[in-house]
Amino acid sequence: xxxxxxxxxxxxxxxxxxxxxxxxxxxxxxxxxxxxxxxxxxxxxxxxxxxxxxxxxxxxx
Length: 61
Ligand SMILES: [Zn+2]
Description:
By secondary structure, the protein is an alpha+beta fold.
């Protein structure tokens, strides 16, 4: 009974998985256009470009 895993995951395997998860969750890339940190494969929310193309309009005051 209870939430007991059938197969025990070794220390190294558990560490590997958790470390990869962290990298995926936190990774940011620098925007080629404006240099702001942005999520990879996403439109930059600072300048509105993705892969060098203007995708969304950013209103500047
Ligand atoms: Zn940008």
